[in-house]
Amino acid sequence: MKARVTIMPKNGVLDPQGKAIGHALEGLGFSGVAEVRAGKVIELELAETDPAKAQAAAEDMARRLLANTVIESFRVELA
Amino acid sequence: MKSAIIVFPGTNRERDMAIALERVSGRKPAMVFHRETALPAGVDLVVLPGGFSHGDYLRCGAMAAQSPIMRAVRDFAAAGGLVLGVCNGFQILTEAGLLPGALLRNATLRFLSMDCHMRVERADTPFTSHWQKGAVFRSPMAHGDGNYFCDDETLARLNGEGLVAFRYATPEGAITAAANRNGARDHIAGILSPNLRICGLMPHPEDLVDPLMGGTDGLPLFTSLLDSLATA
User: What keywords tag this UniProt record (chain A) (predicted)?
Assistant: First the structure.
């Protein structure tokens, strides 16, 4: 089954990349963009067929490698 | 002083580090590849050098922190061994949880390749004993992700327990926003573990250890280490 891990910088953690994207949007004439936050999405194809186990496994992977929980939060969705 | 330098795929400052270590100790450090599972016998200093381990994929140092050799480095550190991490090495130490916090993209989003100055925040450690407290020294730096970050609680602990080793400063020793080019929290350039045996910093003192390099400002880091091991 597929798991999608979405990783975002935590609130309060400076996100210079998001800021730069915001400035670029402004430069293109898009007004009214209050804030831009940039994260990443990692898709996992898992052999596990039990949704609860797949969810738990993906969360463990996120905690141990995919996300750095000092600066990032993550969310796992199964598809 | 018997030192080991850990080499990951994409590490590129290991030879600079070897020059600095050999210059003070007269002994060539052992180069240890990331796939090894043990450190050479009798090693008393482990160095994680600079570079772009595993292409900085995912996050700087994230892959390297999971390397087989890091289990041995963790055991070595737990037994009170001396560990120095420079630049990518500092990033790896934070990713491995051996030092707190994380290194974010530079606040300016620019890769910074230039000299900086650091103020020595304490001189009673194995890494800094050959400086005076408050001394300022010049050091090259070269990084895209050197913006030290930690939460409020960790920052209070680092400051409260005196675990900040180096802060970015002007050549005169003033702590100003302009001297803190990567935007590091509280101007932090380098930190220590609570037992003062692990040190990580972003700049490269190993690249200023010989008059031929343009100065010897970085030498006290290495003579301090040699001294602490000689008297241990």
Answer: ATP-binding, Cytoplasm, Ligase, Nucleotide-binding, Purine biosynthesis
CA pair distance B139, B115, nearest whole angstrom: 5
Say which residues have a Cβ less than 8 Å from residue B84's Cβ, sequence separation at least 6.
Answer: B45, B46, B47, B48, B127, B198, B199, B200, B221, B225
Partner-chain contact A14 B183, CB within 8 Å: yes
Rounded distance between C-alpha atoms, residue B9 and residue B13, angstroms? 12
Burial of B26 from C-beta contacts in 10 A (0-12 / 13-18 / 19+)? exposed
User: What pLDDT is recorded for position A14?
Assistant: 86
3-state secondary structure at position A27: helix
Q: Where are the domains of chain A?
A: 2-78
Question: What's the confidence (pLDDT) of residue B232?
Answer: 59
How many beta carbons lie within 10 A of that of residue B117, not counting itself?
A: 21
Which residue type, as a one-letter code, is found at position B68?
A: P
DSSP one-letter string for B199-230: EEESS-GGGSSBGGGTB-TTHHHHHHHHHHHH
What's the CA gap between B6 and B203, in Å, rounded? Answer: 18
pTM: 0.95
Q: How high is the pLDDT of residue B196? A: 98
CB contact under 8 A, B108 and A71: no
CA–CA separation, B18 vs A50, rounded Å?
51
B228 Cβ neighbours under 8 A, 6+ residues apart: B82, B126, B129
The CATH number for A2-78, chosen from 3.30.1280.10, 3.40.50.300, 1.10.10.10, 3.30.420.140, is: 3.30.1280.10
CA distance A34 to chain B (A): 19
- Alpha carbons within 13 angstroms on the beta-carbon side of residue B137 total 27
From chain A, the residues in CB contact with B147 under 8 A are 14, 16
